[in-house]
């Protein structure tokens, strides 16, 4: 919700009313029952709450649109400071040169937020569940994170800043998200046939779809066809890697999670980026283990999410390391005795120094940390086999082990 609201609705709403937005979108969710598909305005409490929330959302968003339109640059429709979807829609023009009304814009951004909410969160959870249950794939993704973070262009100023290009390079993580999508596609594609047409099965049997009929593409069934996907029930992200590319085996309709054709999902690229940013952040900062059993699928909801709670345990070794060493640095600065040895947990190994600086950079400007290190004149030594991380030898001579 937070990343989507920043990208789609803009920084005003992301920063000023994030809790309120979550609550209002939650009310929209609660108004989505199976009966809503048949009788969307049935006067039941869930629908009343939904409609009230929609109205409130409309008011909040149109207020932002009004402020932007009235601001000097917003009035010209070219406010480059607002790099979000809301501003794109404000700036857009119909073919006859007319701008969209505030109500149209508000309706579109609410629809976009809603289209991506459960789909992306469901796939994020499935991606995590599969990754945490497959140590080999998890190790490959973590190694990819380490490699890409080490060469991320933003690292000197703010080591942890992810940029768009780096996210696009996360091939292993991308394949894992795609494989989670294949196994747990959240949406079915529904189309109306305008004129009759014939389809043929691979055995050569022909079926005619009469014009006017609704056609539901059972994406999940397609994704488990063994002549397209080898061992279709197995989580195997490598099936999308060069050389195998099973998502192309049956032509351009082999992989259908985002549907296809003119009305394919408009948010495909955004979803991948969002889910990858989320897992990149979690995997770079936490050691996570799944402690609940592999979840079953909840088929009774509109979007099949994991049934029940998925429980994980997590710890933040970098933070611990940072706190221990940062505290010692501060003591040193004040001229107090510092510990003879600092021994963070065994997780601190080969890339410890890089990771340490990265973690420290989050607590304060890197310049300050560099200054601290220079003042101290310390040498950090990573002792990988023992998992110890010590500092030694400084010009004051009091701390040499
Ligand atoms: C993992 C996440 C997502 C999945 C699996 C997904 C899947 C789909 C599918 C299958 C359709 C086509 C439905 C049909 O053919 O009847 C669709 C349509 C659409 N999606 Fe998504 N979606 C996701 C995320 C998003 C996001 C984040 C956005 C917006 C930011 C979005 C915006 C849309 C829109 C606007 C359409 C309608 C396109 C049209 O009718 O022309 N989706 N999505």
From TrEMBL:
One of its GO terms (molecular function) is monooxygenase activity. InterPro entries: CYP450_sterol_14alpha_dmase, Cyt_P450, Cyt_P450_CS, Cyt_P450_E_grp-IV, Cyt_P450_sf. CDD domains: CYP51-like (cd11042). Coiled coil: none annotated. It holds the Pfam family p450. Heme binds at residue 265. Signal peptide: none annotated. Gene3D superfamilies: Cytochrome P450. Its cofactor is heme. Keywords: Heme, Iron, Metal-binding, Monooxygenase, Oxidoreductase. PANTHER family: 24-HYDROXYCHOLESTEROL 7-ALPHA-HYDROXYLASE, CYTOCHROME P450 FAMILY 7. Belongs to the cytochrome P450 family. This is Cytochrome P450. It comes from Oryza meridionalis.
